[in-house]
Amino acid sequence: MPMTAPLQPVFDGHNDLLLRLWMQEKGDPVVEFLHGEMSGHLDMARIRQGGFAGGLFAVFVPPAQHMKQSKATYREEDHDPLAITEAQIALLQQIADRSNGLAQICRTAGEIEHCIDRGVLAMVLHIEGAEALDEECSQLDGWIAAGLRSIGPLWNLQNRFGVGVTGGFPGSPDSGEGLTSVGINLLRLCNRKKLLIDLSHMNEKSFWQVAETSDAPLVATHSNVHAICPQPRNLTADQLEAIAQSDGFVGVNFGNAFLRADGKRDSDTPLTQMVRHLDALLEKLGEDRVGLGSDFDGISVPDELGDVAGLPKLTAAMAQAGYSSELIDKICRRNWLRVLKKTWGA
Q1: Which DSSP category does 333 fall into?
Q2: How, if at all, do strands 103-105 and 148-152 pair?
Q3: What is the pTM of this model?
Q4: Is 56 helix (H, G, I), strand (E, B) or coil?
Q5: DSSP secondary structure, 61-119, as one string
Q6: N or C: more exposed end of the chain, with fewer CB within 10 A?
Q7: pLDDT of 259-292, one tens digit each?
Q8: How many CB atoms lie within 10 A of CB 87?
């Protein structure tokens, strides 16, 4: 019997698993994630099948209109951003507690490396859209104690910290006002507490405010190249130059709408299109500043990939494009570890 090649460990910059588990209305979502077969892109069996070693697990408060359409038991009075945020944080802890040692919340790059070496899922808590924070950010220390190491102050909609990137395809990231004074204060607080600041849902004005204010590497956890796919959320040449100058990082988004030149969500997108974005990012940022930010469970992905179990198909596409095994390893995990060490200091 021929030997099977070892899986390439992948550390990923973004997924929406916690939102999907929180939205589930029947059964025990943690048990189903750990021991069953779930819809969507992620469960523990497929994670292990695909070599998914860990990543940033997002906590996201969906707009009330989305909840009304997607959650049968939704009531207007239930739309409490703080309660929803803390319920999703609790789900991440439950995964760790009930995994029989197969998953761990990580707070340092060293802990992530140790988990990868032992085959333990390395989970980093990330906030996507800071609707649940008050102006004084009084909840932040409690979230940090629970494992928070990364925050995107904005999603697409306006909150007290600023205005996220909006607009249809094709479109510019220059889509309105940026961060408020409260938002600028949050950036400074993140720097003091060594939290990663995610740029992926920031419009052009807020992007440049972060570049001017923050002393950390500029990181877009799940964004692509605007010159290839002119979605407002994708990054322009000037933005990529600023990220390179800061010794920052971009994680490629797997979403069809952010990959395709036509901006469609159609899932017949070839994996060569993802490699095209990787090629462009490597040219602009260099081999040490590019990685993966799938957006699993938050978007539609190419059929050729399917779900997390399909990650070996992506690494095969990189090899087919001439990427060395060393470069593939950098893109799949080592570049993430580098920028996290530089941001967190550990």
Answers
A1: I
A2: unpaired
A3: 0.96
A4: strand
A5: ---HHHHHHH-TT--GGG--HHHHHHHHHHHHHHHHHTTTTSEEE--SHHHHHHHHHHT
A6: N
A7: 999 999 999 999 999 999 999 999 999 999 999 9
A8: 14
